[in-house]
């Protein structure tokens, strides 16, 4: 065990290297180490280099559940950039246990955090996020509304079509990268309509509707 810190340090250095083969081998090794590698990888999420942050985030996503406590702690921190990185990784991990923190992130005062939380909620795909995402479709910032429209597709809730249609018809907002919010809503409607027409949609959508109803009526 005394060699573990040195081994991790070496792998972290290799993950930062220019050589692609070394980076691949390091990512695999850190993923195998699992929880032991979480803290050094969390530190890399603060790197000023975007590519390095992406590598660390990918490995944390591979590690999965053991990384959750550290990531959830980061979401509650004061550093906006770190909150965004943590939320992004939570979406990759895809754990429903992160749902509450991501819902809080959806209401964050920083629009970048809220938009990233919306995207992560879509990746997790838990129908309990349906109503918060519908609310986020009326967020003051177009970036958040755009991401909420994208995310709600993966929740597989048929009622979302009505909410999306309202956005498609009335939202004139444009995101910071120049995309129309209404176009995001239209694409989401098309994807949901396609899912509804697929042969195996019935059980999936019935289950999603049941979860949403339970959230609305917890005593039933």
From TrEMBL:
<dbReference type="InterPro" id="IPR004155">
    <property type="entry name" value="PBS_lyase_HEAT"/>
</dbReference>
<dbReference type="GO" id="GO:0016829">
    <property type="term" value="F:lyase activity"/>
</dbReference>
<dbReference type="GO" id="GO:0016491">
    <property type="term" value="F:oxidoreductase activity"/>
</dbReference>
<dbReference type="Pfam" id="PF13646">
    <property type="entry name" value="HEAT_2"/>
</dbReference>
<dbReference type="InterPro" id="IPR011989">
    <property type="entry name" value="ARM-like"/>
</dbReference>
<dbReference type="InterPro" id="IPR016024">
    <property type="entry name" value="ARM-type_fold"/>
</dbReference>
<keyword id="KW-0456">Lyase</keyword>
<protein>
    <submittedName>
        <fullName>HEAT repeat-containing PBS lyase</fullName>
    </submittedName>
</protein>
